[in-house]
Amino acid sequence: MGLALSPLHICATDSRAANTLVDYATMQSSTDDRGRRRFFVATLTTIHAAIAGFIGVIIGGAVASPVFGREREQETWIPAGDLNSLPDNEPIPVLYRVAREDGYREIMDRRVLYLLKNGDEVTAMDTTCTHLGCPVRWDADAKAMKCPCHGGVYDKTGTVVSGPPPKPLARFTTRIDGGQILVRV
Ligand code: FES
C-alpha cells in the first residue's frame, strides 16, 4: 500500500525516496509489462503454430491429391473402326474422347489420332507435334503431316522430314479384335 503512494506526494519531502519509489514503481511497471509481453508473445506463438499446422494440412492435401488421381488412372482401349474399311497406306483421322481429372473435376478432352493401315497391321499416331505440341494434320496433296506452328513436316508414318521437331510422332499400341481396331490411349 505504502508503495502505492504517488511519486508526486513523496517528491515534495525526499527526492531520493521519491526517486527510489519512482524507480521501484517503474521497475514494478516494467516487470508487469514484461510479464504481459511474455504472455502475449506466448499466446501469439501458439496461435501462429496452430495456423501454420492447419495450412500445412491444406497444402499437403493439394499436393497429395494428384497422386491419388494418377493411381486411379487405368489404360483405356478405344474402338477405332473396322479394319476392312480402312484404306491402305493413307493416314485416316479418328476423333476420340478421354476423361481426365482437373483438380476435383472430370473433363472430357476431344483428341485426334491417325490410323495407318499396312496389310493386316495398323499404326496409330498421336497428332501432337514433338516440337512444341501443336496439332499436326495430314496433307493428302503433299503426302505429309504438317505442323502449322513452325513448319515441322513428318511423313505418313510420323517420321520427321524437316523443320524443328526433334523426334517422330508418338505412337499408340493397337490390336485387332474380331476385325475391329482397338487403340490403347
Ligand atoms: S510445334 Fe510443330 S513445329 Fe513447332
Please describe the structure with a list of short key phrases separated by commas or semicolons.
185 residues, alpha+beta, Rieske Iron-sulfur Protein, 2 domains, four-stranded antiparallel beta sheet, 11 strands, 34% helix, 32% strand, binds FE2/S2 (inorganic) cluster
Strand tally is 11
Overall form: elongated
Largest sheet: 4 strands, antiparallel
- The CATH class of the largest domain: Mainly Beta
C-alpha Rg, in Å? Answer: 38 Å
Q: Approximately how much helix is present in the residues?
A: 25-40%
Write down the domain tally: 2
Q: What kind of oligomer do you see?
A: single chain
Question: Which homologous superfamily in CATH is the superfamily of the largest domain?
Answer: Rieske [2Fe-2S] iron-sulphur domain
Give the DSSP E fraction (strand runs of 2 or more residues). Answer: 25-35%
| Average pLDDT figure | 74
What are the distinct ligands in this entry?
FE2/S2 (inorganic) cluster
Q: What is the N-to-C order of secondary-structure elements (H for helix, E for strand)?
A: HHEEEEEEEEEEE
- How is the largest sheet built, in terms of strand order? 2-3-4-9
- Mind telling me which CATH architecture of the largest domain this is? 3-layer Sandwich
CATH fold group of the largest domain: Rieske Iron-sulfur Protein
Could you give the distance between the termini? Answer: 87 Å
